[in-house]
């Protein structure tokens, strides 16, 4: 028999919540969860699960939730909550018997408002009829019963006046329009245990100008279904943010980048990608970073990848480059130059020239590469920049016949967005999707738009 | 560069793709450093599955290690639950010793300077400051 559970959601990046939950449910084999009551505007999500075990597996490593509770009752106010709880206990007389002798405490969680400690204690006292016989233990209780209050104060901000007294009355009026939940804490999330602080860029020693922020980096690793001893590869590793958060979830991480300087780190300060892993004590999970152009990759046949997660360069803040030269004439015959009896291109100090490349072409190559190197059901997750508020144009998302696009989620900035695109590698015998090559639709689209101040094509022609 | 990585890289030049000699690369004039890592039996076991043993034997021999068994050791590899602790205690003495040796060879042995040569096209790549450089000159890029 399934039971009701309440997920408390975090308020940031609400459009990534369901993808994170679904990805973890899939990873941990929790079947058929109905998330259809979810609203991005609300911090609560009611679902049905078989047992606490499932709830723990689902929530434990989430970044976009705060925790999960077995839900016993809800109500528009405290009286209604109590009435519903009493009815629930009557129809389910044994629901609390397992916990009656456990040590316990009560928690009060307030949304958009908080009661004073005194009022909280008064409220907790009203639950005496639960007949919990265990001893109260505020430090290490076996069970935590939680009252969640949600003050619906959506209009309050607009109505706020200078008069403090008036505001207070307004507040009390609004409090009536709230909701209450009562449940038992089953699992708090990684977010609640302060993971964001651990991965905060402010405390990370080696970062660059385009280092990926920690929260969405952790979310990406969750949606990529990184798990213990799965092989994770980032072909645009930069300073290693996405590998770092993937190692947090037990992934074996390896990266490459065409920019040798970023990989070398700062030798004077002794900091580099590897030292970031050491700083967080997850260096066993870090294999190596290679100086490599992934369009001319060196990965061997036996090197099969479980997950690819990356943030390709957009060609805006940092140049987007691949091997080769834009001025082939200048390099004609240079392969014959000999220095000190050695071909110059075979010398240790030789620097391989690079040429500018289009983002669109690069992403097409990324999909092609992923279709070849990913294990079946492995995921490709990458961030792609798109232009906002453009008339008569749809965003074109690259597609590959062996990769099923399962998520396309947007993080909005002012005039542009970046999207997390998530694909699953399928077997051609079981799946045949369409192929859309970005480079054939529009070339150097994002870059031109960026430097145009994101004017639409019509405006540009004028 | 950890020694294990040598097991995952071949010559990136496209015309070498079909040649068996482009993997593994040949490691020469290498400067090795041992950097301690915490031992985790499950981690090594999971890496063992991914290894091409013949390639490992060849590279290990070039770097002076001839003590590896000729065939990839078959260890029982139970499906690991996420939260399961190491099953170090469940391993017999020989297996544990083998895993510790592999740990030392694959993860603790770092090549900090050296040359990697493709046995098919003779192109020479370098490891500089522990970072292997597989970038190519323009005339070898299509």
UniProtKB/TrEMBL annotation, chain A:
<dbReference type="GO" id="GO:0030488">
    <property type="term" value="P:tRNA methylation"/>
</dbReference>
<feature type="domain" description="tRNA (guanine(10)-N(2))-methyltransferase TRMT11 N-terminal">
    <location>
        <begin position="3"/>
        <end position="155"/>
    </location>
</feature>
<dbReference type="InterPro" id="IPR002052">
    <property type="entry name" value="DNA_methylase_N6_adenine_CS"/>
</dbReference>
<dbReference type="InterPro" id="IPR016691">
    <property type="entry name" value="TRMT11"/>
</dbReference>
<keyword id="KW-0808">Transferase</keyword>
<keyword id="KW-0819">tRNA processing</keyword>
<dbReference type="InterPro" id="IPR059073">
    <property type="entry name" value="TRMT11_N"/>
</dbReference>
<keyword id="KW-0489">Methyltransferase</keyword>
<dbReference type="Pfam" id="PF25904">
    <property type="entry name" value="Tmrp11_N"/>
</dbReference>
<dbReference type="InterPro" id="IPR029063">
    <property type="entry name" value="SAM-dependent_MTases_sf"/>
</dbReference>
<dbReference type="Pfam" id="PF01170">
    <property type="entry name" value="UPF0020"/>
</dbReference>
<dbReference type="GO" id="GO:0160102">
    <property type="term" value="F:tRNA (guanine(10)-N2)-methyltransferase activity"/>
</dbReference>
<keyword id="KW-0949">S-adenosyl-L-methionine</keyword>
<comment type="similarity">
    <text>Belongs to the class I-like SAM-binding methyltransferase superfamily. TRM11 methyltransferase family.</text>
</comment>
<keyword id="KW-0694">RNA-binding</keyword>
<dbReference type="GO" id="GO:0043528">
    <property type="term" value="C:tRNA (m2G10) methyltransferase complex"/>
</dbReference>
<feature type="domain" description="Ribosomal RNA large subunit methyltransferase K/L-like methyltransferase">
    <location>
        <begin position="203"/>
        <end position="319"/>
    </location>
</feature>
<dbReference type="InterPro" id="IPR000241">
    <property type="entry name" value="RlmKL-like_Mtase"/>
</dbReference>
<keyword id="KW-0820">tRNA-binding</keyword>
<keyword id="KW-0963">Cytoplasm</keyword>
<protein>
    <recommendedName>
        <fullName>tRNA (guanine(10)-N(2))-methyltransferase</fullName>
        <ecNumber>2.1.1.214</ecNumber>
    </recommendedName>
</protein>
<dbReference type="GO" id="GO:0005737">
    <property type="term" value="C:cytoplasm"/>
</dbReference>
UniProtKB/TrEMBL annotation, chain B:
<dbReference type="GO" id="GO:0070476">
    <property type="term" value="P:rRNA (guanine-N7)-methylation"/>
</dbReference>
<dbReference type="GO" id="GO:0030490">
    <property type="term" value="P:maturation of SSU-rRNA"/>
</dbReference>
<dbReference type="GO" id="GO:0043528">
    <property type="term" value="C:tRNA (m2G10) methyltransferase complex"/>
</dbReference>
<dbReference type="InterPro" id="IPR039127">
    <property type="entry name" value="Trm112"/>
</dbReference>
<dbReference type="InterPro" id="IPR005651">
    <property type="entry name" value="Trm112-like"/>
</dbReference>
<dbReference type="GO" id="GO:0035657">
    <property type="term" value="C:eRF1 methyltransferase complex"/>
</dbReference>
<dbReference type="GO" id="GO:0030488">
    <property type="term" value="P:tRNA methylation"/>
</dbReference>
<dbReference type="GO" id="GO:0046982">
    <property type="term" value="F:protein heterodimerization activity"/>
</dbReference>
<comment type="similarity">
    <text>Belongs to the TRM112 family.</text>
</comment>
<dbReference type="GO" id="GO:0000470">
    <property type="term" value="P:maturation of LSU-rRNA"/>
</dbReference>
<dbReference type="GO" id="GO:0160102">
    <property type="term" value="F:tRNA (guanine(10)-N2)-methyltransferase activity"/>
</dbReference>
<dbReference type="GO" id="GO:0016435">
    <property type="term" value="F:rRNA (guanine) methyltransferase activity"/>
</dbReference>
<feature type="compositionally biased region" description="Acidic residues">
    <location>
        <begin position="78"/>
        <end position="92"/>
    </location>
</feature>
<feature type="region of interest" description="Disordered">
    <location>
        <begin position="70"/>
        <end position="92"/>
    </location>
</feature>
<protein>
    <submittedName>
        <fullName>Trm112p-domain-containing protein</fullName>
    </submittedName>
</protein>
<dbReference type="GO" id="GO:0002098">
    <property type="term" value="P:tRNA wobble uridine modification"/>
</dbReference>
<dbReference type="Pfam" id="PF03966">
    <property type="entry name" value="Trm112p"/>
</dbReference>
<dbReference type="GO" id="GO:0008276">
    <property type="term" value="F:protein methyltransferase activity"/>
</dbReference>
């Amino acid at each position: 028999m399934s039971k009701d559970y309440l997920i408390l959601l975090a308020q940031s990046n609400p459009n990534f919540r369901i993808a994170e939950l679904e990805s973890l449910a899939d990873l941990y084999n929790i079947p058929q969860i109905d998330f259809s009551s979810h609203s991005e505007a609300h911090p609560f999500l009611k679902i049905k699960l078989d047992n606490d075990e499932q709830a723990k597996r689902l929530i434990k490593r989430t970044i976009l939730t705060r925790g999960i509770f077995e839900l016993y009752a809800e109500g528009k106010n405290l009286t209604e909550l109590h009435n519903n709880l009493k009815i629930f206990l009557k129809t389910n007389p044994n629901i609390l018997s397992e916990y009656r002798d456990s040590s316990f405490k009560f928690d009060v969680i307030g949304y958009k408002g908080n009661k004073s400690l005194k009022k909280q204690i008064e409220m907790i006292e009203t639950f005496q009829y639960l007949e919990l016989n265990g001893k109260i233990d505020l430090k290490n209780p076996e069970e935590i019963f939680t009252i969640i209050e949600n003050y619906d104060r959506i209009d309050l901000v607009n109505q706020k006046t200078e008069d403090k007294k008036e505001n207070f009355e307004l507040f009390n009026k609004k409090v009536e329009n709230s909701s209450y939940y009562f449940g038992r804490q089953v699992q708090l999330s990684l977010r609640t245990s302060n993971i964001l602080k651990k991965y905060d860029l402010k405390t990370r020693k080696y970062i660059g100008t385009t280092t990926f922020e920690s929260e969405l980096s952790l979310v990406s690793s969750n949606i990529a279904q990184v798990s213990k001893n799965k092989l994770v590869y980032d072909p645009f590793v930069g300073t290693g943010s996405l590998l770092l958060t993937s190692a947090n979830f037990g992934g074996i991480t390896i990266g490459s980048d065409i920019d040798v300087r970023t990989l070398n780190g700062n030798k004077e300060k002794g900091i580099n990608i590897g030292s970031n892993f050491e700083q967080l004590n997850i260096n066993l999970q870090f294999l190596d970073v290679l100086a490599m152009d992934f369009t001319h990759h060196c990965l061997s046949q036996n090197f099969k990848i479980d997950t690819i997660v990356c943030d390709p360069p957009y060609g805006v803040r940092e140049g987007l480059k691949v091997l080769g030269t834009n001025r082939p004439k200048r390099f004609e015959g240079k392969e014959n130059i000999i220095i000190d009896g050695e071909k110059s291109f075979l010398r240790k100090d030789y620097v391989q020239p690079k040429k500018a490349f289009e983002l669109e072409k690069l992403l097409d190559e990324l999909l092609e590469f992923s279709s070849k190197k990913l294990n079946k059901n492995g995921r490709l997750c990458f961030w792609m920049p798109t232009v906002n508020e453009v008339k008569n144009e749809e965003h074109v998302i690259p597609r590959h016949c062996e990769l099923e696009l399962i998520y396309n989620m947007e993080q909005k900035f002012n005039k542009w967005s970046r999207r997390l695109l998530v694909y699953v590698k399928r077997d051609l015998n079981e799946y045949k999707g369409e192929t859309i090559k970005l480079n054939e639709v529009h070339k150097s689209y994002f870059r031109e738009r960026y430097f145009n101040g994101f004017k639409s094509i019509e405006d540009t022609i004028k | 560069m950890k020694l294990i990585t040598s097991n995952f890289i071949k010559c990136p030049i496209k015309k070498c793709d079909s040649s068996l000699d482009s993997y593994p690369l040949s490691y020469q004039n290498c400067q090795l450093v041992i950097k301690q890592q915490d031992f985790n039996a499950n981690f090594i076991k999971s890496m063992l599955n991914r290894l091409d043993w013949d390639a490992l034997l060849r590279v290990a021999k070039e770097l002076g290690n001839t003590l590896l068994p000729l065939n990839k050791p078959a260890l029982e590899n139970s499906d690991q639950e996420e939260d399961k602790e190491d099953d170090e205690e469940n391993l017999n003495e020989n297996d544990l010793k083998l895993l510790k040796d592999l740990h030392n060879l694959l993860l603790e042995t770092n090549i900090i300077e050296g040359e990697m040569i493709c046995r098919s096209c003779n192109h020479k790549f370098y490891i500089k400051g522990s970072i292997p450089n597989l970038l190519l000159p323009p005339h070898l890029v299509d």
